[in-house]
Amino acid sequence: MATLILYAIIAFILFEFVLTKSVDLLNMQTWDKPIPVELKDIYKEEQYEKAKAYAKANAKLKTISGLFSLVVIVAFLWLKGFAWADTLSASITTQPILQTLVFFALIGIANYILNLPFSLYGTFVIEQKFGFNKTSFSTFIADTFKTILLSAVIGGVLLSLLSYLFQILGNNFWIAGWIIVSAFTLFFAAFYTTLLLPVFNKLSPLEAGNLRSAIEKYSSTVAFPLTNIFVIDGSKRSAKANAFFSGLGGKKNIVLYDTLIKDLTQEEITAVLAHEVGHYKRKHVQKSMLLSVVQIGVMFFVFGWLSSNPIMGEVLGAEKNNFHLSLITFSLLFSPISLVTGILMNIYSRKNEYEADNYAKTTFAAEPLITALKKLTVNHLGNPQPHPAFIFLHYSHPTLLQRMKAMQ
Ligand SMILES: [Zn+2]
After folding, report:
1. Which of 8, 25, 72, 78 gives 20 to 30 Å between its CA and that of 352?
2. How many domains does the chain have?
3. Residue 136 C-alpha to ligand 1 middle, in angstroms?
4. From the CA of 124, how far away is ligand 1's center (Å)?
């Protein structure tokens, strides 16, 4: 039975690879289609060729790293790598919580090292070649250390708590796990801009001047406090422009990248801000958080139900089952469901984008938002007409053309 489950897991991994690869191929072909009339003016011919070359370079890297990961994970499962890491952690310590921490540290470090060449190539070769990369090598190293430290601390605390509750609560573990992971998720959603983001970026209030006055004029009409609008130094890493809304409860913040302020007109920046205020007014963060909490609950319910079954360890080739082996088997078994929930969350997110656009249209204006979106597409060398299957699978935002049509 355990072998059969392992075969099913590997079959799904292969299926998911073939699915995403086929959709990637379909999407690459869209670059050779004639551009729709509505978007004719956004790219100059040589820029369009550059965007196409950028998409090709990224697709190639994605294929190579995807193939590599596929071979590694299948080989690792086949050769009982997880059971081996479990034995190794058990030889280091007999304390179950520490065993879990050592086990995930081993897997995490191996995963990081294996991915490093691809992330270096992506940043310092592809992004560099197309003029996006502004990350210095020292920033890259600092980012790496900060990320490792943060994941070790946050992941370590979370895993220790879960492992401890797993040992003492037995069948009722899932309820405690649900509460704790939900609390962590809500906490970091609320404090993202005040706690996590400042570790990597500098946040400053809007400087006095024309832009601030224009934004103030708009934000007072919709009662969004100016003190909650920040500018971050995105240009430290990339030339790509962006903006987002984040936070829960009293912690509502809109973050504008300095690159956005540089590339867009005052009216366009205000329109983008109006879109972000729309996310806040329509309570999109709260609603997505609610969906996440439900999703986490379902996951823990299924995990709690499966986790004590000895087969969860046997699937990975281990003789005995424990918390961390169960967690790995569970996440592999759950991946078809994760694929579906990911698609559903994207559908939901695209609906929210239309709502935020509509909010910007009614409280400010549609035209500057449309020109801003056009500029942003060119700024990112984005695909003006991605394949519908690719949108369905990966897009959290509707396409430029879809958004334009909805606003007109
Ligand atoms: Zn949005």
Report:
1. 25
2. 1
3. 29
4. 29
